[in-house]
Write a structure and sequence with these properties.
The complex is a heterodimer of chains A (117) and B (111). With 117 residues, chain A is mainly β. Chain A is 0% helix and 47% strand. With 111 residues, chain B is mainly β. Classes of the chains: A mainly beta (117), B mainly beta (111).
Amino acid sequence: NAGVTQTPKFQVLKTGQSMTLQCAQDMNHNSMYWYRQDPGMGLRLIYYSASEGTTDKGEVPNGYNVSRLNKREFSLRLESAAPSQTSVYFCASKSADSPRPSTDTQYFGPGTRLTVL
Amino acid sequence: DAKTTQPPSMDCAEGRAANLPCNHSTISGNEYVYWYRQIHSQGPQYIIHGLKNNETNEMASLIITEDRKSSTLILPHATLRDTAVYYCIVRVRYNTDKLIFGTGTRLQVFP
């Protein structure tokens, strides 16, 4: 049981290049999330997917697109990378909402460290 | 949405209890308090959560004041491996999918 996995672990891009960050979970979770964390800051939500086939914007969606490929996989795409997107990107997942909202905790992947030159 | 306020940093001697405070004075009646921690730039890790009663699990205890305007996370016997940034988060009202992370408290456990 690997939990939440992310690829790649590190990436360097030039301004204007595109790339896709991959995330997969093997916990049969319905909800998946993408966050970014800038140095010395907390995490900020980029996009999330409450279930397969749905996606919604978070706090900082500009410059990103996402795809919920299936229940396991949720990818984040940068179409034209900018230096302001230099950050650490975390993917997370959690089980479906239940009548007891206190049960929803998010499980995080190890992160992708992205540098845009 | 309730915001949280935490001290930016704290120190604790190994083996002693670490008490991490959090203010959430605008919390609503149906909002839960969650605690996560982040060790050395790894992905955040869930610790504990509560609504109004005190909670305890194998990692920590959570004490919530009667008026729910503040809480304290207690690590009863801190170890060097507990050195991390600790985030107090109030779950966003009417939206079950979002966690709003602040800047947290950096806890340094020293020998």
